[in-house]
Specification:
One of its GO terms (cellular component) is cytosol. It comes from Agromyces mediolanus (Corynebacterium mediolanum). The chain has 314 residues and is of the alpha/beta class. Helices cover 23% and strands 26% of the residues. The protein contains seven helices and 15 strands. Strands 5-2-1-6-7-8-9 form a seven-stranded mixed sheet, sandwiched between helices. Strands 10, 11, 12, 13, 14 and 15 form a six-stranded antiparallel sheet that branches. It has a two-stranded antiparallel sheet with strand order 3-4. α1 links the parallel β1 and β2. The longest helix is centred in the middle third of the chain and has 25 residues. It starts with a strand and ends in an 11-residue tail after the last helix. 41% of the residues are buried.
Length: 314
C-alpha cells in the first residue's frame, strides 16, 4: 500500500481527532502547522493551541504561523509533502502554497457543503434549525470552501445538543471520514464530485450573535442558545446588566398553575425550584446563568433574588 507524506494544518480541539487519526495511519506525518500560542485565562498566560499540544505529544515537527505567508510556505514546502490536510486552521491557503503538495490540499469541513461555507458551520446550522448536520472532505481551491467533495457524512440534528457537543461528535466521526479519503488518494481510487446547489455562508460569530430574542418562539430561542454555546455564548440584558445563559431548556409542565403560559416575552418568573422566562409561544426554563461580575450559578437560586415583574430587555 502506498504511503503519503502528510502535512497537517489545524488549531482548535476539533482538529485534534483528525491529527491523531492520521498520526496513527500508514502515512508519514512530516509536519503540523498551527496558529501561534495565545493568551488565555484571566492571567493571559501564553498557551499552545490544542493541535500544537497534541503535535508535541506525538513528537511531530510544528510550524506556528499566524498566517500562511511566504515564510510559512517555504517552511511547509521544505517538508516535501505529498498532501496537505487542513482542519479548522483559522487561515486561508493561497497560491503558491495551495499547489505546493503534489496532491494539493484537502479540507475536513463540518457542514454538508455547499451549505454553511465559512468559519462557523455547526453554529449557523443549529441557529438555522437545520434537520441534519454533517461533515465533508473536499479539495481545497482558491474560492472559500467551494472545491469538489470526496466524501461526506450526514447525521440527524440532536435538538438537545449544543454547538460544542455537536462539533465534538462530528470531529471524531469526521476524522475517520478524512482518513478514508487520504487512503483513497494514496491508492488512486479517490473520486471527487463538484458541489451542487445554492451555497449558504457561516461567518465567524460575534458576541452580538449570542443575544437571545425572547419575542421569537421558544424553539428558535433555544436554537440560538444551542448554536452559540459555548462560544460566543448566549446572553440577555436585565436592568443594564448582561446575564450569560449557560444552560436552558423548554419548560416542562409542572402540574401547578402554569406560570409560564401567561408570561410575556422576556418576563422572568420563579416557580418552585426553577426559573422560567417567557417567549412568543412557550416558557423556557433557565437552568444555569452567570450574571456579570459573578460566577456561574443555579438560575433558580439567582431568580429568588429578582424583584417581582423582572424582565429581560428587548
Amino acid at each position: 500500500m502506498t504511503s503519503l507524506r502528510l502535512v497537517f494544518a489545524g488549531t482548535p480541539a476539533a482538529a485534534v481527532p483528525s491529527l491523531r487519526r492520521l498520526a496513527a495511519s500508514r502515512h508519514e506525518l512530516v509536519g503540523v502547522v498551527t496558529r501561534p500560542d495565545a493568551p488565555l485565562g484571566r492571567k493571559r498566560v501564553l498557551t499552545p493551541s490544542p493541535v500544537a499540544a497534541a503535535a508535541t505529544e506525538l513528537d511531530v515537527p510544528t510550524i506556528k504561523a499566524a498566517r500562511l505567508d511566504a515564510e510559512a510556505t517555504a517552511s511547509i514546502a521544505a517538508l516535501e509533502p505529498d498532501l496537505g490536510v487542513i482542519v479548522a486552521y483559522g487561515g486561508l491557503v493561497r497560491e503558491p502554497l495551495l499547489s505546493a503538495p503534489r496532491l494539493g490540499w484537502i479540507n475536513l469541513h463540518f457542514s454538508l457543503l455547499p451549505a454553511w461555507r465559512g468559519a462557523a458551520p455547526v453554529q449557523h446550522s443549529i441557529i438555522a434549525g437545520d434537520d441534519e448536520h454533517g461533515a465533508a472532505v473536499f479539495q481545497l481551491v482558491p474560492e472559500l470552501d467551494a472545491g469538489a467533495v470526496f466524501a461526506a457524512l450526514r447525521r440527524p440534528a440532536d435538538r438537545l445538543a449544543t454547538a460544542g457537543e455537536t462539533l465534538d461528535r462530528l470531529a471524531v466521526e469526521g476524522a475517520e471520514l478524512l482518513a478514508g479519503v487520504v487512503d483513497a488518494l494514496a491508492d488512486g481510487t479517490a473520486v471527487a464530485r463538484p458541489q451542487s446547489g445554492e451555497p449558504s455562508f457561516a461567518p465567524k460569530l460575534s458576541l452580538d450573535d449570542g443575544r437571545l430574542d425572547w419575542t421569537q418562539p421558544a424553539a428558535r430561542v433555544l436554537d440560538r442558545y444551542r448554536g452559540v454555546t459555548p462560544e460566543p455564548g448566549a446572553w440577555a440584558m436585565l436592568d443594564g446588566v448582561r446575564v450569560k445563559v449557560l444552560e436552558a431548556r423548554l419548560a416542562e409542565p409542572s402540574g401547578a398553575p402554569e406560570a409560564g403560559a401567561a408570561l410575556v416575552p422576556g418576563e422572568l418568573a420563579p416557580e418552585r425550584r426553577r426559573l422560567l422566562v417567557g417567549t412568543a409561544d412557550a416558557a423556557i426554563e433557565l437552568v444555569r446563568v452567570q450574571p456579570a461580575g459573578r460566577g456561574a450559578m443555579s438560575a433558580a437560586d439567582w431568580g429568588r433574588g429578582l424583584p417581582a415583574g423582572a424582565r429581560f430587555e428587548a
